[in-house]
Design a protein that fits this description.
The protein is an alpha+beta fold and 150 residues long. It has two helices and ten strands; from the N terminus they run αββαββββββββ. It has a single domain, classed as Domain of unknown function DUF4426 (Immunoglobulin-like), CATH 2.60.40. A hairpin with a 6-residue loop joins strand 9 and strand 10. The relative contact order is 0.20.
């Protein structure tokens, strides 16, 4: 059985990552029975303890994308569900980057994170494809984010 300190540390890391993903209400998209929450930020915005816990490089020149998929449940904020999630980023000159994502499960939370290089004042257009487990349909989320590395 994990000790209490480890469990609290893990929960604190989860809360920080999810707050980053949910920091702005407009960073979600509704797809009928599902809501996809998304965010992209520079990894230097995360506490060092969190980047260490999740094996991320903390740097102004590294971006991170965070995706969470929730099934709508009446009277709740939703139920996290596993999904097949893929992501790409394209800069304004058309250079495309595939972003490797990994699934994180902590307690009942499920989210997907991936990192990628960024340059100062670079704007990336993200395309995220999400297929919740057991569903035939794939949902497409598109958003853009500008990064500042100085």
């Amino acid at each position: 059985m994990p000790n209490k300190k480890h469990v609290l540390s893990t929960l604190a890391g989860l809360v920080i990552l999810m707050l980053a993903a949910l920091a702005q209400a407009e960073n979600s998209q509704d797809f009928g029975d599902y809501v996809v929450h998304f965010n992209a930020l520079s990894t230097d915005m995360l506490p060092a303890s969190v980047t260490k816990q999740y094996g991320l490089k903390r740097s102004k020149n590294r971006g991170m994308i965070n995706i969470a998929v929730l099934r709508k449940v009446l009277g709740t904020t939703g139920k996290p569900v596993p999904a097949k999630v893929t992501a790409t980023a394209t800069n304004l000159t058309g250079q495309k980057r595939d972003i490797g994502l990994r699934e994180i499960r902590e307690g009942t939370a499920i989210y997907y994170i991936g990192t990628f290089p960024v340059s100062h004042e670079e704007t990336l257009r993200f395309t995220v494809d999400v297929q919740p487990e057991g569903e035939k349909d794939t949902f497409e989320v598109k958003f853009k984010q500008q990064f500042y590395t100085r």
